[in-house]
Amino acid sequence: MRTFANKIAEKDYYEHQASEKEFLAWYAKQDRQTYETPSVTVDSVIFAYNPVTNRVNLLLIQRKAHPDLHHWALPGGFLDKTEDTTQAAIREVYEETHLQIAPKFVDQLTTIATPGRDPRGWVVTVAHLVYLPHFPETQAGDDAERAQWFDFTIDPETHQLHIIGVLDQLLAFDHANILKKASQIIQESFEVKPKWLNLLPPVFSWQAVETIAEQFSGRKISDQIAHYRELYMIPVNTEKHDDTDQPHAFFRLKKPI
């Protein structure tokens, strides 16, 4: 067994002279015990366009266990060591809501490591943003007591997302902050890459585009998105609007955004 004059010499040897295999074996016994390891979770902000109300809805689950018992939360849970965060997000959503989401619809939103964000200990979460191109039914499972779609509004000044029927203080953990981050990302996308357009049905009216844009921005925004027609859309047909001679245009997306 190799001996060293002191810990500094030992560390220098394994970091700079030993093989990587020797270094990793030494590191497992030495440094890894020095650093506390956090738990990692995933949370998913899932939006879908409700064809009945013509508004976007947000999917939440109601927790049936501590912590935050009975509070509403984003679907999510702990990361397994055999999966990446996208796989974990998809698995947790299915376990808690019975929705099967394709990986192409899942984008990483942000990583949050705020101290004390979870009363169970040091928990880092990786939040994801999902735009579903359909409005599926849900069924609660695993540690979810209920799974439900909610309407919401966004404050244009603070960017805070307010869920209709759920008080902000009844959201679990720091999920209100995650929703605020999602709304900020969406509003920043108006001039860059409005992926929220993927929420629209295969054929849609311009009024539907304006409705979603106003819901996500919290204000009238028609003039700022007029160029979307040319950039992202193709007219597909027209119909007479009511009893007037004004045509009512319909569109489809050129391609997913």
UniProtKB/TrEMBL annotation:
Keyword annotations:
Hydrolase
Q: Nudix hydrolase domain location, by residue?
A: 39-172
PROSITE patterns in alphabetical order: NUDIX, NUDIX_BOX
Highest taxon of the lineage: Bacteria
The terms under GO molecular function for this entry are: hydrolase activity
Q: Which PANTHER family match?
A: ADP-RIBOSE PYROPHOSPHATASE, DIHYDRONEOPTERIN TRIPHOSPHATE DIPHOSPHATASE
Family listed: Belongs to the Nudix hydrolase family.
Can you say what this protein is called? ADP-ribose pyrophosphatase
